[in-house]
Specification:
By secondary structure, the protein is α/β, with parallel strands linked by helices. It has 2 domains: 34 residues; 239 residues, 3-Layer(aba) Sandwich (Rossmann fold). Helices cover 40% and strands 18% of the residues. The protein has 11 helices and 8 strands. It is globular and about 75 Å long. The model has no long low-confidence stretch (mean pLDDT 94).
């Protein structure tokens, strides 16, 4: 059976049409791929009270008028304050283990949900998350916390948000954990058959922001990270301005801080002891 000329030409056209459809779907569905506030749901499943920690609910209004929700945990004798920016899935109630760990290290913690997450209003966007972070910083300044006693901490997507804030403020420290160098770069790793750098609607250029931030930095990354391969963390570290330190963990993107708990705690304690000694 012989193929007609039309059939010969139609097969490549069908393939091309299918590929273009995939490109269009990827382009328009990027917000749903990046922001996952409903995993497992937007409801707060617990509070710091369950850990025996005192805290206050805080309601902040961003520069563009969005009301966001967060917690401020109390510490009787803090060595510093930490402003905590979480990853792209879930909400602040899914970070209680980390809040408790940081409390034991002598830190008061302010953690917020980005717009569209948890009890915060609005819908997430890159520019919006940066404004949410600034609202958290402004809150600490408003209640009288010195900027040089604030550690900006970001995990995964929150690493980019933390680095952006740190590049624009005079904080005491910056900790970036399990982050990517930028969305286009990590996207190209996962989708090598797509022109990700042309398609990407987001930058979240963690490495570039870390290069501009002037405070002491700690970069934490797992050699087994399947979402943001360790080369991403190493690039952030290489571009980051000094002083800086790197802690390598083992374990997956979401489990490294549990699997490598001793290394994780040791790295945090060394950083904190060097730059934020406990009050006597």
């Amino acid at each position: 059976m012989q193929l007609s000329i039309n059939s010969v030409f139609s097969i490549p056209l069908l393939i091309l049409g299918g590929y273009l459809l995939i490109l269009a779907l990827v382009y328009f569905r990027q917000p749903q791929m990046l922001y996952l506030p409903d995993m497992p749901n937007r409801a707060l499943e617990a509070t710091p009270t369950q850990l025996g920690l005192e805290y206050q609910n805080i309601s902040l209004v961003t520069d563009d008028g969005i009301r966001i929700h967060g917690w401020h945990t109390n510490h009787p004798n803090p060595r510093a304050h930490m402003v905590f920016f979480h990853g792209n899935a879930g909400n602040i109630s899914h970070r209680l283990d980390s809040i408790n760990l940081f409390h034991k290290l002598g830190l008061e913690v302010v953690i917020i949900d980005y717009r569209g997450y948890g009890q915060s209003e609005g819908s997430p966007s890159e520019a919006g998350t940066y404004l949410d972070a600034k609202a958290a910083w402004d809150y600490l300044m408003r209640i009288g916390v010195p900027g040089n006693r604030v550690i900006i901490f970001g995990r995964s997507l929150g690493g980019a948000i933390a680095a952006h804030l740190a590049s624009n403020q005079s904080a005491g420290g910056l900790i970036i954990e399990s982050a990517f160098a930028s969305v286009p770069e990590v996207g190209a790793i996962h989708y090598p058959w797509l022109p990700v750098k042309l398609l990407s609607r987001y930058e979240y250029a963690t490495a570039n922001y870390a290069a501009k931030a002037k405070m002491p930095k700690l970069i934490i990354h797992s050699r087994n990270d399947e979402i943001a391969p360790i080369e991403q963390g190493k690039k952030i570290f290489e571009l980051a301005s000094k002083p800086k330190a790197f802690v390598e963990l083992g374990g997956s993107h979401n489990e490294a801080i549990y699997i490598s708990r001793e290394d994780y705690m040791r790295g945090l304690e060394q950083y904190l002891d060097q730059y934020f000694a406990r009050p006597k």
